Amino acid sequence: MESKSLQKMLDRRASFTARYPFFGTHAMRLELVEDTSAKTAYTDGKVIGFNPYFVEQLTGPQIDMVYAHEVLHVVLNHPWRRGDRDPDVWNQAGDHVINLTLIAERFDVIKGMLADRKFEGQSTEYVYGQLFRERKQDAAQDQQGGGKGQSNSGDSDSGES
To answer: Phi and psi dihedrals of 41, rounded to 5?
Structure first.
């Protein structure tokens, strides 16, 4: 028997595919996996993992945003382009690029998602470089006792995506 959140994701994927055939075709190739250890949602290129509690808080259009977001990680080859870069910073960079694209396409915003307008039109590699430098500067300031105490990176929209 499927859980309520998995059924919600399956139902929304069907309507999402009808409304957004490009994204939907790709979404249909990714297995849906409930993962209570995830903060929000993620993909490894094979699955879309999601926290059931997170999904229960979303509206239908916000679930569309999650699907489109995770599909773009795959379409843009983010899992394979990362190389030896810091995985957390790489994911944040990808999140900014993807979310800005999806906002421009009028997908629903999810509270806390990364979408800094200073990165509009930039590549994931460029955004990664900027975020990585900011993180190093913050760490250096923390060591000198004058730092903010935390990174500027914030929370990811669809989380670990």
So the answer is: -145, 160
**Span 39-88, pLDDT tens digits:** 999 999 999 999 999 999 999 999 999 999 999 999 999 999 999 999 99
Q: Please state whether 30 falls in left (phi above 0), alpha (psi between -120 and 50) or beta.
A: beta
Closest CA to 45 of 68, 26, 25: 26
Q: Can you give the pTM of this predicted structure?
A: 0.85
* Chain-centre distance for alpha carbon 56: 17
What is the amino acid identity at position 42? Y
> 3-state secondary structure string, 64-114?
HHHHHHHHHHHHCCHHHHCCCCCHHHHHHHHHHHHHHHHHHCCCCCCCCCC
- The token pair that represents 69 in the structure block: 């977001």
Strand order in the sheet with 31-34: 31-34, 47-50, 41-43
**Backbone φ/ψ region at 125: left (φ over 0), alpha (ψ -120 to 50), beta:** alpha
